Amino acid sequence: MGECMKTVKRIEIIIDSLDVKMVLEDLEAIGVSSYSVIRDVIGSGDRGARSGDLLNDAMNNSYILIACDEPEAEKVIEALRPKLKRYGGMCLVSDARWIRH
């Protein structure tokens, strides 16, 4: 199993959809070019219920997923921390295994 999987850090970010472009620009500025974005994420957290508005991105959240090595994860965390503090959102970092193909 060891050779068919690579250990990575899984970074999951939930942020207001209006701030996604800014976060992606920050990620690209530090050299992160591989990520996935899922729009219209609903839920409830420290900013209350986020159910979305179908007419625009107001009150919508997006989910950003990144799989990277530990040094890259540290750069992502340091770049995101001020944005999360200022704009809100959530960031989870966990260990994961990437299936090599």
Fold blueprint:
Blueprint: E1 5-16, H1 20-29, E2 36-41, E3 43-45, E4 48-50, E5 61-68, H2 70-87, E6 90-99
Antiparallel strand pairs: 1-5, 1-6, 2-5, 3-4
Walk me through the structure:
- With about 100 residues, the chain is α+β, with helices and mostly antiparallel strands.
- It has one domain: 2-Layer Sandwich (Alpha-Beta Plaits).
- It contains 2 helices and 6 strands; from the N terminus they run E-H-E-E-E-E-H-E.
- It has helices at about 20-30, 70-85, and strands at about 5-15, 35-40, 45, 50, 60-70, 90-100.
- The strands form 2 sheets. Strands 2-5-1-6 form a 4-stranded antiparallel beta sheet, covered by helices on one side. The protein has a two-stranded antiparallel sheet with strand order 3-4.
- Strand 3 and strand 4 (about 50) form a beta hairpin.
Structure summarized in a few sentences:
With 101 residues, this protein is of the alpha+beta class. The protein has 2 helices and 6 strands. The chain has one domain: Alpha-Beta Plaits, CATH 3.30.70.
Structural class: alpha+beta
Q: Do you know the CATH architecture?
A: 2-Layer Sandwich
- Low confidence ranges: none
**At the first level of CATH, what is the class?**
Alpha Beta
Strand order, largest beta sheet: 2-5-1-6
Name the descriptors:
101 residues, Alpha-Beta Plaits, 4-stranded antiparallel beta sheet, 2 helices, 6 strands
